[in-house]
Design brief:
single chain; 244 residues; mainly alpha; 2 domains; 11 helices; 0% strand; elongated
Length: 244
């Protein structure tokens, strides 16, 4: 009865407003309802839904990057030569040594692809440590709030895990030899020898690429209903969809 009375009052009241004013009132009412729905979700349901979403998104991000050409053929995350070497590389190409430059670039990307699968274990560990407060802030945060959470909680562990894998991979595929050859073959390259940590550069770019892909997967789950593949995901993310 109260709902009927409220609806009657609302209809009568809206007749006194312009179309633009009505649209604004209805939009605010929808936002308030979405906020109420999100607030009514239990902490346990929010945490379960968010963890499920992040297990899916991290799994996809790792799968997409940790395979042959996962970095090399993805222009959004492909690891290019360090800025300090790009001028040197340009000079080498002019002197017919472009193949050496290409091999160096390919080797860096192969090293990143070898390291990326290790991230899955570290991401799952970070998920286990997520609190109710973390989950609610992430759910109601920006489109990449979860990715930022992983950056804060996992970067140090990922760097530690990636570093030896990247180093071994670059040695195996000849990146170190290619790098030394580029440095000592190019005009002015010798001056850069010993001034640049190639391992550190590749590890950093691997992290950048992995977090970029994770962010893209997170956005998909938040904004695309088709990516919300379970009832729990639809309930949790649908509750805040009207606020975005």
């Amino acid at each position: 009865m109260r709902a009927i009375l409220f609806g009657t009052v609302l209809i009568v009241s809206l007749t006194t407003y312009s179309t633009a004013q009505i649209d604004e009132i209805l939009e605010k009412a929808g936002d308030a309802l979405s906020h109420q729905n999100a607030a009514s979700l239990s902490d346990s349901k929010i945490t379960a839904g968010l963890k499920q979403a992040l297990e899916i998104s991290t799994g996809k991000a790792v799968s997409l990057t940790g395979r042959p050409d996962g970095f090399f053929k993805n222009q959004a995350i492909k690891i290019l030569l360090p800025p300090k070497l790009q001028t040197v590389a340009k000079g080498m190409r002019m002197f017919g040594m472009g193949a050496q430059v290409d091999e160096l670039e390919l080797g860096m990307n192969r090293a990143a692809e070898q390291a990326a699968p290790e991230a899955k274990r570290i991401f799952l560990s970070a998920l286990k440590q997520m609190t109710f407060d973390d989950a609610r802030r992430i759910l109601q945060g920006s489109d990449t709030a979860a990715t930022e959470y992983f950056k804060r909680t996992s970067t140090a562990d990922l760097t530690t895990a990636f570093s030896p894998i990247v180093h071994r991979s670059m040695e195996r595929v000849g990146v170190v030899q290619q790098y030394n050859q580029v440095i000592h073959s190019a005009p002015g390259g010798t001056a850069l020898a010993g001034q640049f940590d190639l391992d550190k550069y590749v590890v950093g770019k691997t992290l950048d690429g992995l977090f970029y892909m994770l962010g893209q997967e997170e956005i998909q789950i938040r904004k695309n209903p088709a990516a919300q593949t379970t009832a729990l995901l639809k309930e949790v993310f649908g509750a805040v969809a009207g606020k975005r």
